[in-house]
Design goal:
498 residues, alpha/beta, TIM Barrel, 14 strands, 30% helix, disordered C terminus
């Protein structure tokens, strides 16, 4: 029996470059039906950092997170500094790490039935970029180092150099030697590159490599191609692996990964309106598990921060009300110190959430309204129109989805099309069919105009004509017999004929 979940307000106030890896057999990983309570640890550590892992007690750490109810842990096998935390024959092990930290953690997780997801940064690897400078992206001004200089993005990796084989080789090395349950490949973003390899392929494909926007698109294509190659390799090793690629759009990687993550620190650059948009969008993408990753800190790189309990909890509850499982992000102390204040807070939050499990376990959101967005939602941090529509419907306590052309719109009774959505042939056809089925459409602003912004594409169906931009602010209109029904401000009771 399906449960109906109401809004949160109603719920809770190497390949050919490296030698073949030889292992006796693939180690068995932890298999779970679906992650429920997760942790994500960042561990980006400079090579000069002393005593890495010196105080780490894998048994004590995994006992603590097991007590929290954690069943999935994402942990770095290789960070964006290019440092490996396991005994690698292909990569660069952190010079002050004296033992196989990742290996000890993997063994402890396996014994305690905690699924371990191996993190590798796919787009950034500073130390490897220094050692193999030909693997880094070449920017338009001829520089390998990028701006801003004092961030991990000073060196980004080219997906079409031998780096791709190196990355795949390390992934295979981990898969064959450690009992991991999956892989998280980070930062597969579209870093523009005009190195000889990329320029050659762009020319072959008829792409104008001299234009930065075209080079970015090609890099996004290259990142997705690399993700596809990684996915193929991993599925051949273990079809049950959990796989996620951070960077490519959710719809673009639909056939590549096995679960999704929504990364959102509202006190960081995301803001408090990001999660509501993504929560209502991501649940339209199929039946994949969706993790709601916030953080115990205020922003990435905030090593000492500890956000209030209610702040962390409220975001996780919002996610649970919308089909997303909790995932709290944190920083691993370079020495491996057990951060009891952080773990005490996580344990208190997760134990409380576990008492609510009957309310949201296997629940489905029943929706009759859809907010239409015209393209894939990769980064909507600056889209005020979409955020505003989501906020208004949320405050009205309505159940709704955010849909793109990749979704099926036929199940919805109302389509809401906010301010500035130009109608192409596909969107116009879908809206026309929706109206023909006797269903409702709400549009605002200039939504519905053609690409030249000269006329409404469905002017006949809507009964409206585009005259031009309104120069008045504020603007007023007169109520006619066919323009509005039951208008509360003018006591008009005419019947809408449009």
């Amino acid at each position: 029996m399906k449960r109906i979940v109401f809004s949160i307000f109603g719920l809770i106030a190497a390949a050919n470059v490296f030698p073949q890896i030889k292992t006796a057999e693939l180690k068995t990983s932890v298999k779970l039906m679906q992650p429920k309570y997760c942790l994500f640890y960042d561990n980006h550590t400079m090579p000069a950092c002393p005593d890495v892992g010196a105080n780490f007690d894998a048994e004590a750490f995994t006992d603590r997170i097991k007590d929290c109810g954690v069943d999935q842990l994402t942990f770095h096998a290789r960070c964006n500094l290019g440092m490996a935390y396991y005994d690698t024959k292909l990569g660069i092990k952190h010079p002050t790490l004296k033992y196989d930290l990742f290996g000890k953690l993997a063994d402890a997780c396996q014994r305690k039935n905690i699924a371990l997801i191996a993190y590798l940064n796919g787009g950034i690897s500073s130390a490897e970029g220094i050692q193999y400078r030909e693997w880094t992206t070449l920017y338009f001004d001829g520089r390998e180092n990028r701006e801003p200089r004092f961030t991990p993005y000073v060196r980004t990796m080219c997906y079409n150099t031998p780096y791709r084989d190196h990355l795949i080789g390390m992934i295979k090395e981990i898969a064959h030697n450690y009992p991991v349950s999956g892989f998280f490949i980070d930062c597969l973003a579209g870093y523009p590159c005009v190195c000889p390899t990329c320029v050659k392929e762009m020319k072959e494909k008829g792409i104008d490599w001299s234009k930065e926007e075209e080079a970015v698109k090609f890099s996004e294509f290259s990142a997705l191609r690399l993700a596809g190659d990684i996915s193929k390799v991993l599925r051949e090793i273990n079809p049950d692996y959990r796989i996620y690629f951070n960077g490519p759009g959710f719809e673009e990687q639909a056939e590549l990964g096995t679960y999704l993550e929504c990364e959102c620190l509202p006190t960081g650059s995301w803001g408090y309106e990001y999660l509501p948009v993504m929560a209502h969008y991501m649940r339209t993408l199929g039946d994949k598990p969706i993790l709601n990753m916030n953080g115990r800190f205020y922003d990435w790189g905030d090593f000492g921060g500890l956000r209030p309990e209610n702040a962390i909890k409220s975001e996780l509850i919002y996610g649970l009300a919308n089909g997303m499982r909790p995932n709290i992000g944190g920083h691993f102390h370079p020495r491996g110190d057990l951060e009891n204040a952080v773990l005490d807070r996580i344990e208190k939050i997760y134990k409380e959430l576990q008492t609510m499990e009957p309310w949201f376990s296997n629940a489905k959101n029943i929706t009759e309204i859809a907010i239409v967005y015209p393209g894939t939602i990769a980064n909507i941090r600056g889209d005020g129109q979409l955020k505003s529509a989501v906020r208004m419907l949320s405050e009205l306590k309505q159940q709704f989805d955010v849909v793109t052309p990749a979704s099926d719109w036929s199940k919805y009774k109302i389509l809401v099309i906010p301010d500035n959505i130009i109608f192409n042939d596909e969107i116009a056809g879908r809206v026309k069919n929706h109206i023909a089925a006797g269903k409702a459409v709400i549009t605002t602003g200039s939504s519905g105009l053609d690409k030249d912004k000269k006329q409404f594409v469905l002017a006949k169906e809507w009964g409206v004509k585009y005259i031009g931009e309104n120069d008045f602010d504020p603007a007023y209109f007169s109520v006619g017999k066919t323009s509005i029904r039951d208008c509360p401000t003018c006591h008009c009771h005419s019947i809408h004929q449009g």
